[in-house]
Amino acid sequence: MSQPTDAQPAPHVSIKPSGHDLPWPLLDAIASLTTAPLMRIAEELRTATLPFLASSSLVIFTEDCTGRPQKKAGAEDIVSRVSIPELDRLRAALEGEGPWRGPAVIGGQEREVLAFRYAPSNALLVLTDPAPAPANAAADTDSAALRMVNYFWRLAAARIQEKVSDAPPSYLLESRAASAERVRVTGELVDQHSTTLETVLAALRSNSLDDHAARTLVTDVTVKALVGLRTLNDRTSNLVEEPVATAFERLREDLRPLMHFSNIDIQFVEPPAKGRALPGEVAHAARAVVRGLVLAIAEQSNVHRVRTQWDCDGENLLINVRDDGGGELSPAAPTLERLLQRVQAVDGTMSVDIMQGWGADISVVLPLDPPPTPAGDVAEWGLASRELEVLQLLAAGQRNRTIATDLGISENTVKFHLRNLFRKLDVRSRTEAIALAHSAGLR
């Protein structure tokens, strides 16, 4: 199509908005999706797609969300059973961004699925049992409906990426609590199934079994099951941690457009390659804070060079950002106040040193571990000293066996203390006890 020129003016298009003519349900769905909090993003995406393509469940898998990499809506018997290894295998089968349609194991059962991938974050969308929506039963599900679903999916994936990149304090606190709880639950599963499988191995290797061929076969199957279980544990742990070198490289990629389109030279001093891995929420906070600082610095005049450095002392991520400007940045600026809130959300500190004529020197310290002592007053719970010790270890994500070892008591004694804890805290589960402990500052 030829472009309009002076000799060929562009045609005038008259738009007369009419409430009756606009597709309000579609516009409302887009508005809800682009403003949805992360906790409701899967529900909003399913609501938006159902008028175009029916499905029994919708699952989003994104490793950007360290606390809850799965976001799900739909049939409870599916969403409660879907696992990370299942989603990993499906994502590996996709070529490009999709859509991909075919049979896949989701929720422990082979189902017909429709899958899309979002390349910028490698996020995955899975719809189980896809079918034409009742209102559009005659529609071509391979064309218009698929394009609409893909359009909604890209909006949702971009929304997730945006929220995680911004790393607001509420997200960071939720991510830390969810990460600790997921590691605890996975650890319990590993202990439970490892003990069972190791017992089976011992029995099958016993001389009391004569059928050597059968014993060899079953032993091989059981060993593979053990390896798979350990792999699942490692995979889950990896989701809540990020190698410090990888986290820093992602920061460099985030700032690359600014380096390309501005006259500012951003210098990177990399952390030790073998430094301690960063908890996911700390990595997100660190990148968000540095991006915010660099953007605030870039708004000043006479800034030609910014130096950002990460280091790690084993207990903290140490961040330093300096510029060569005239020292115009104000520590009381709203931008720095917002960044300070993000730092404090993960129990960190930030100091800003402004040198007139010499620029700004900003240091941030982010602890890699949650605070070990309670910030709130738990005396009103009436806990005995041993009960408080058990609760602190429980809030830190420890399992019964580890708590027993750390305190030099039996697992039955740990269970006894937990029953008393639940009664005194008026909770019914470990998850509720951990959430209450976290709200009081126990980590």
TrEMBL record:
Domain HTH luxR-type residue range list: 376-441
Keyword Zinc in annotation: no
Record-level GO BP terms: regulation of DNA-templated transcription
InterPro entries: HATPase_C_sf, Sig_transdc_resp-reg_C-effctor, Tscrpt_reg_LuxR_C, WH-like_DNA-bd_sf
Taxonomic lineage from the root: Bacteria, Bacillati, Actinomycetota, Actinomycetes, Micrococcales
Keyword Cell membrane appears in the UniProt entry: no
CDD domains: LuxR_C_like
Name this polypeptide is given: LuxR family transcriptional regulator
Keywords from the named record: DNA-binding, Transcription, Transcription regulation
Short name of one Pfam family: GerE
The species this protein was found in: Paenarthrobacter nitroguajacolicus (Arthrobacter nitroguajacolicus)
GO molecular function terms attached to this record: DNA binding
